[in-house]
Design a protein that fits this description.
about 450 residues, alpha+beta, Helix Hairpins, Heat Shock Protein 90, seven-stranded mixed sheet, five-stranded antiparallel sheet, 14 strands, about 20% strand, rod-shaped, disordered N terminus
Length: about 450
């Protein structure tokens, strides 16, 4: 774990916008701001209703009084021009009131009730208010000049506390404010989480991450401090494990080599010597399996390599053994990324496992088939034998370390790590492993690895 990687703090904007945290924060902020504005608006309307109504009523009363006075004191020949000026400049229109006028009442709103009460108090109880006269909408107020009745029409905008455009503007502003707030909050939270997630993936990949910044809010700072301490502890444990593995390799294999030499030199029968050599070879195999399983990943050595050549070489070496018959169908120019030593170890473990437990019925050898080809953008490696196969409900169990079927316990001894090592190597290479029974008999092991073909 000696390789360090850099953190990318400048995450693209779209990565935050796609996150659930951003949208949850946005919806929550928009809801809270919307509720707050609605509560404020309702409170304001209730508190502001009477003063607002009184103000509008005073304006209407003043307009009606001034308009009536202007008409009364103007020359009859100039009244038409006066009415046109009022309509153009002030939006005030005066029409004669007829018995045949078709009217519609004003909306039933509290503020209009206040306006009507105040205007009638100033202009007289016979003052009428309607919202439409002869399909012309507006704020219509009746008044009298001498014995003649008139309508004075004001634009409805004078009574609107907020127009639809204003409401749309407020809603848009609320959504934009919520969006910016959600982006800011999710950024503050996502950035530390992104660093933590990247550091965790880095450790899981067998690399050494840079220390997380031990600053910011208390919760994030404490989390980063704890994570950094954990990373240091894991690094120390990794160093201790490397040292222990080196010690095991030296302290156990040296006595075994010495015992093998002593067996060769001892005066023993051929049968006894063969048995002791077999036991020592099994001990050596078990130690090798332990070391292979416990060996840390060497991803710093991961690179593109020729998988076709490795598969052919593995098949060629296996064919030299007297108790193995192997048929290979290997596609040309297969390229994958990984550690060729680990891939070779994985294939050899599978071949050794098939040699031990997948022998063809009534024969002393295992007949194997090794195939590889590109499928769905991945390299598929398939190894099958003609043995008795395995119970399907035991497939996942056999991928765990130190597990063997009862039938295997009576055969050549081992640590039960062969398939566990295969599974671990596949995981390190982000591949996929699948066990199944081969028709008509035997076990099929399928492995998918990322890769491509040059052909």
């Amino acid at each position: 774990m000696a390789t360090e990687i850099q953190f990318n703090d400048n995450r693209p904007l779209h990565s935050w916008i796609k996150s659930d945290l951003f949208w949850r924060t946005f919806v929550l902020l928009a809801f809270l701001i919307g509720v707050s504005m609605a509560a404020w608006f309702l409170s304001f309307r209730i508190v502001e209703r009477t003063p607002r109504g009184q103000q509008i009523a005073a304006q209407i009363s003043s307009i009606v009084t001034i308009t009536r006075a202007a008409i009364l004191h103007s020359a009859p020949t100039l009244r038409r021009e006066l009415l046109l000026d009022l309509a153009d400049d002030q939006g005030i229109r005066v029409y004669p009131r007829e018995e045949s006028d078709v009217t519609e009442p004003l909306p039933n709103r509290p503020v209009i009730t206040v306006i009507e009460e105040k205007v009638r108090a100033q202009l007289g109880p016979n003052t009428q208010f309607v919202g439409s006269v002869n399909s012309i909408r507006g704020f219509w107020v009746s008044f009298m000049i001498d014995d003649d009745d008139y309508w004075l029409m004001l634009d409805s905008d004078r009574l609107e506390l907020a127009s639809g455009i204003q409401w749309l503007g407020w809603i848009t502003f609320t959504l934009v404010l919520s969006l910016l707030g959600a982006l800011f909050i999710s950024g503050l939270i996502n950035q530390p989480l992104a660093r933590l997630s990247l550091a965790a993936r880095t450790i899981a990949a067998g690399l050494k991450p840079l220390p997380l910044p031990e600053e910011g809010p208390v919760e994030i700072r404490d989390t980063n401090i704890s994570f950094n301490q954990m990373a240091r502890d894991l690094e120390r444990i990794e160093a201790d494990r490397t040292l222990i593995l080196a010690g095991i390799s030296h302290d156990l294999r040296t006595p075994i080599a010495r015992m093998l030499l002593e067996v060769e030199m001892a005066k023993l029968t051929d049968e006894a010597r063969s048995g002791m050599q077999s036991d020592l070879a099994q001990m050596e195999s078990i130690i090798a399996q332990f070391l292979d399983y416990a060996k840390p990943p060497e991803q710093q050595y991961y690179a593109e390599f020729d998988l076709t050549a490795l598969l052919k070489n593995t098949a060629s070496e296996a064919a030299r053994r007297a108790d193995i018959r192997i048929n290979s169908e290997i596609a040309e120019s297969l390229i994958t990324t990984g550690n060729p030593t680990e891939i070779s170890r994985m294939l050899n473990n599978l071949i050794e496992n098939a040699r031990r437990y997948g022998k063809t019925a009534n024969h002393q050898y295992a007949e194997l088939n090794l195939r590889s080809h590109i499928t769905a953008g991945q390299i598929l490696i398939e190894l099958t034998d003609n043995g008795t196969g395995l119970p399907e409900d035991q497939f996942n169990y056999l991928l765990q370390p130190f597990t063997r079927l009862d039938a295997a316990r009576s055969q050549a001894s081992g640590a039960g790590l062969g398939l566990a090592i295969v599974s671990r190597i596949i995981q390190r290479h982000q591949g996929k492993l699948e066990l199944s029974n081969h028709h008509p008999t035997g076990l099929a092991v399928k492995m998918w690895l990322s890769g491509r073909s040059l052909s």
